[in-house]
Amino acid sequence: MAVIVGARKKNPLPVIQPEPNLVVFSDEDDLVLSEGDRPRLRSQCVDGPRPCPWVSCRYNLFLDIRSDGILRFNFPEKEPHEVFQSCALDLAEDGLRTLEQVALLMGMSKERARQIEEVAFSKIEDAIKQQYRYAELDDLL
To answer: How many domains, the chain?
Structure first.
């Protein structure tokens, strides 16, 4: 089930525009989105509105769906249109970030970000080792 956010906030705070495609909501504006408008490829959403209104996208930073199906709001005090950086793919294109920056963007402590980084590096290392073993096996055959 897709979650489409198209509602506007009744009295939104003024929004500073750090990006050229930032969507600014006002009392006169109604954001109307349909499932047909949703981008299917990265090339379709690169120049799309920011913050991204598609909170059901797996790369949107507004919420996460845990393995047990429970929604986790990364920024519970904010509405989707108030999140400064909303897309993990945009952040990846911007380049490297420090643990402090990642923790701030994800709404977690620096230590938790370090723990997640450690698990990710371990998984990457295991995948590389497994590929190396398969390459050695192919050479023997």
So the answer is: 2
Give the pTM: 0.56
- Asked whether residue 13 falls in the same domain as residue 68, the answer is yes
120, 89, 117, 82: which is closest to 102 by C-alpha? 117
111 and 54 inside one domain:
no
pLDDT digits (tens, 9 = 90+) for 85-141: 888 899 889 888 899 998 888 778 999 999 999 999 999 999 999 888 877 766 666
Give the structural domain span for 141: 97-141
Q: Please indicate, yes or no, whether residues 42 and 108 belong to a single structural domain of this protein.
A: no
Residues with Cβ within 8 Å of 4's Cβ and at least 6 positions away in sequence, in order, are 33, 34, 35, 38, 53, 54, 56
pLDDT by residue (tens digit) across 76-88? 888 888 887 888 8
What is the Cα–Cα distance from 105 to 88, expressed in whole angstroms? 10
